[in-house]
Amino acid sequence: MAGPLRQGNCYHPGKATLTQRLMSMHPFQWFPFRSLLNPTAAFAELSNAHPDPTRMFFRRILWLALAPPAFVFVGSSLFGWRLGAAEPLRLPGDVLTLIGIGYFLALTFGFVSTAVLSRWMASTYGARDQLGVHFALVTIVAMPIVIASVCHLFPHVFINMLALIPALLWSLYLLYKGLPVALGIEPERGMLMASALVGCLLVGAVGLLGLTVALWTNGVGPTIGI
Amino acid sequence: MDGVGLHKRLEANSGLLIFGILLVSAIGGLVQVLPSIFQDSLVAPTAQTTPYDPSELIGRDIYIREGCGVCHSQQVRPLLAEIKRYGPYSRAGESAYDRPFLWGSKRTGPDLHRIGGRYSDEWHRLHLIDPRSVVPNSIMPAYPWLAERPANRGPDVRRRMRALQALGHPYSEAEIAAAPAALAGLMEIDALIAYLQGLGATLNAGGFDQASRTAPSTREQRPHSADGGDAHFAPEAAG
Amino acid sequence: MAVEQAAGRALRPAGVYHDRAVTALVLCSVVWALLGMLAGLYVAAELVWPEIDFGREWLSYGRLRTLHTNAVIFGFGVSALMGTAFYSVQRTCHVPLFAPRLAWFCCIGWQLGMLAGGLSLLAGWNAGKEYAELEWPFDIAIAVVWVCFAVVFFGTIAKRRIQPIYVSNWFYGALIIVIAMLHIVNSLAVPVGLSKSYSLFAGAQDAIVQWWYGHNAVGFLLTGGFLGMLYYFLPKHADRPIWSYRLSIVAFWSFTYAYIWAGPHHLHYNAIPEWVQSLGMVMSLVLLAPSWATMVNGVMTVAGAWEKLKTDPALKFIVLSLAFYGLATFEGPMMSIKSVNVVSHFTDWTIGHVHSGALGWNAMITFGTFYFLVPRLMGAPLHSVRLANIHFWLALAGTMLYILAMWGAGVSQGLLWLSLDEIGELSFSFKDIMASMAPYYALRLAAGLIFFAGVLLLAFNLFMTVKGRRTIAVAPPKTTGF
Predict the structure, then answer these.
(1) Residue A114 lies in a domain
(2) CA 20 to 30 Å from C384, out of B180, C25, C123, C156?
């Protein structure tokens, strides 16, 4: 079934109607969204595909990384950040822009480094090692978190945690479920590789937390009395 | 012989292995902990630090018994925000008579090293019996039983003071003999309040330099704030 | 290791591994896990609804939380370590336990001591030192049982029939030796009646001694002891030798040397000498290397044995425990950096860090080991692989949620406590910050419930496995001496 559709990828943009264009699109181009509804199919499709890393980066990862910062920017300028302890914290526009850009760069770096890390591990676990596949895997796995980041539109710390934590757990589930399918390895081997990735991601997350805190105490960011 | 070969000999000999572990793990302690144990300046009391009087001593033991230190630290770090919030930062000598130390590792509630004199005895009484009656959002447990028991329960206060005396706390025989009388009629809650009111009280009243070692720790002289819970370590209360 | 199995009396009793004390210790450990984690759940709930102590002393947060830490570390943790040490030392030495009656004494003595000790904590007997709260009568009892533990363990090693002492035994050995040293020094006190004593050390000196103890109780018990478990049970699960023998040597000695220095990072910016703090910080950073060396060794050992996951549901737990071990051993050194510690100290971040190790590493590897061990001890297959798989997901979700909730709470606390406004005054009052923690504490309670549900499944699964048991006796292989 994937065969004809893949050939259909070479459509002529000038001639086709929107419906025709959607119909003829490579499933790859919309699977990140379908992965939410039917992840098994999305992973199965990915297992046969050979996405191009450059395309994946510019057409998927950049956009996924752009969404949360955009939501934060809009939300913070409209409502201000609520840390729970006091009045909403309103930051000036240029600071918000700076935070937004920083967030975007961090997410992009996070997505890319996860994919690169995953490819680096591939040989140990006998998995496919085309970078494009790992990029695609990261986009599918990260999808729930990106969608849940809509909650940044109302930047209240706890509401955000409440939305993001289930999304994170769902992403975790997708990673364990999808990695072996997408990378063409046995489920058991996939479990090992997914756990290794989770370990690296946890270390990355806590490292980022530590770096942020160290920046605060060294005078970058909020005023703290030390 | 290479390293692995050397190790093969070590791991074939259980006595050598035990000795090796003991030696290697002891180095850190010997270099880092042992000097501190023999560094008397670490436990030389500051000019204001006096041994706990009988009611404070009993109060401190109750503080330990109830596990207050699980949520309350007694260590103001030398950081601007902490000095603003709590008061002068903690000196080593202030804990010279603390066996064990109660610096803590967690602040679910606020630090208490400078709590003395900030609130009235009556506030503490209400707060200990029903914390939410004075601090509406507090998650502190209530300690109603402290008000129902005499302070001289458990090991006799004279035995406690003798043990501390043996460890070098300068209690006189007269002080020890008079201790039971000092506790007469007090409930556990009174002893605990006495202990809390003594924490950093001389500092709160006058700072490190003004207070002298011989100044009597008369509770009457301390400023009593009757402002209830509003100023519960709020910025404005941290004079 | 080739083993011969025979039912009942087919072999002389002297020629059979003594596994009944092991079984007893493992089952007691499960009971302690249930009790200790239930206490943990209750104190977590008390932080959300403080009224639920109903004004009872023994349900009061300060006492119950102390029970929680003691029950999980010394009840659950040490019972599991003692049991697995007795199990693995016989098999790595090819001889039955030395002094099996003494092993039974260790088992029963430890359980009774911990039970009475736990009750004494609820009664308010508290020495006031973290993770060393038990009063002097229990300190003496612990020391006696510990010496017996050492006699049984090293006695078995002394009469071994395989010349090299296997690496898991180095770690168990370090656990026994170093914990004995720490426990004895830190517990030195002058008693005043049964229920009360005063520490031999005072103030700042007591602080340094206590965290030399406290940090290395984590180091040699919760890290080193469980690494012993890893080094024996991971290769057994995977049915292949450890990936790098050289790496295990380097990791063991550098770990044993470096860990002991790291205690003062619990006292950053406290009233102890600056050089002690800085040394503690540097050595904590150094510690990352041996910790991760062991992780790499474990990950690479299991990477080549993935087929085993098909038949061995328990291996999953060990794989995941390595991931959380990696997290905890990175987070620890990071939090010992002074400019991070200044924010994280005294906050719930510390609690989250402890639980990433305790739930993600210690509990997870113990569960994996028990799912492996109990069927073997009972000679019956695990009651339900499906339940074990569900347990795996509950454990993972619970641990993640716990860590995330505490990161959120801890970083907020640290930042808000120190935060100054534009005129340089404190931005927030303490009680407002405290009140804002309520949602995080609720989330943490939810995390605990999820994790505990998994432990209930474990207990049920193992209970049903024990019910389906048959007698089993395992003889050492017939190797000839040195």
Answers:
(1) yes
(2) C25
> Is C445 in the B-facing interface, judged by CB distances under 8 Å?
no
State the count of interchain CB pairs (< 8 A) between B and C. 279
So where are chain B's domains?
1-38, 45-219
Query: Are the beta carbons of A210 and C340 separated by less than 8 Å?
Result: yes
Query: How far is the C-alpha of C429 from the C-alpha of C431, rounded, in Å?
Result: 6
- What are B173's two structure tokens? 């025989």
User: Which chain C residues are closer than 8 Å to B28 by Cβ?
Assistant: 257-261, 283
| Cβ count near C31 (within 10 Å) | 16
Amino acid letter at B231?
A
Report cis status (omega within 30 of 0) of the bond before B100: yes
> Which of the residues C413, C415, C420, C432 would you substitute to probe the A interface, choosing the one with the greatest number of A C-beta atoms within 10 Å?
C415
Separation CA C122–CA C112 (nearest Å)? 15
- The whole domain housing A187 covers 30-213
Residues of C in contact with A226 (CB under 8 A): 342, 418
> What is the rounded CA–CA span in Å between residue C79 and residue B21?
23
pLDDT tens per residue, range C141-163: 999 999 999 999 999 999 999 89
pLDDT in tens, A60-98: 888 889 999 999 899 888 887 776 656 677 777 888 888
Is position A226 within any domain? no
B133 CA: distance to closest CA in chain C (Å): 13
Task: Select from 1.10.760.10, 3.90.1150.10, 3.40.50.360, 1.10.510.10 the CATH code of B45-219.
Answer: 1.10.760.10
* Residues in contact with A9: Cβ distance below 8 Å, sequence separation at least 6, in sequence order: A24, A25, A26
Nearest to A84 among C335, C407, C436 (CB): C436
CB contact under 8 A, C343 and A216: yes
pLDDT at A81: 77
Tell whether A5 is covered by a domain.
no
Query: Distance between CA C92 and CA C210 in Å, rounded?
Result: 35
pLDDT of residue B234: 46
CB contact under 8 A, C204 and B80: no
**Omega before A32 cis (within 30°)?**
no
Residues of B in contact with A224 (CB under 8 A): 81
B43 to chain C, closest Cα gap in Å: 6
The total number of structural domains that make up chain A: 1
d(Cα C432, Cα C321) in Å, to the nearest integer?
A: 37
Asked if B43's CB is within 8 angstroms of C202's CB, the reply is: yes
What's the rounded mean pLDDT across residues B22-47? Answer: 89
Residues of chain A found within 8 Å of residue B84, distances taken between Cβ atoms = 225
- What's the rounded Cα separation, in Å, for the pair A119 and A69? 27
pLDDT for the residue numbered A17: 56
| Nearest Cα to Cα of residue C172 among C293, C250, C89 | C89
Q: Does residue A225 form part of some domain?
A: no
Using CB atoms, pick whichever of C195, C263, C345 lies closest to residue B154: C195
Q: Which residues in chain C have Cβ-Cβ distances shorter than 8 Å to A86? A: 427-428, 432
Residues of B in contact with A225 (CB under 8 A): 79-82, 84
Q: Does the structure show a pLDDT above 90 at A156? A: no
Q: What are the chain A neighbours of B82 within 8 Å (beta carbons)?
A: 225
Pairing, β C4-6 against β C473-475: antiparallel
- Whether C444 contacts C42, CB under 8 Å: no
A 36-95: CB under 8 A from C: 83-86
**C392 within 8 A of C316, measured Cβ to Cβ:** yes
Residue C70's pLDDT is 97
User: Distance between CA C168 and CA A101 in Å, rounded?
Assistant: 49
> Residue B218, exposed/middle/buried by CB under 10 A (0-12, 13-18, 19+)?
exposed
Do the strands C4-6 and C197-199 form a parallel or antiparallel pair, or are they unpaired? Answer: unpaired
- On the CB side of B21, CA atoms within 13 Å amount to 24
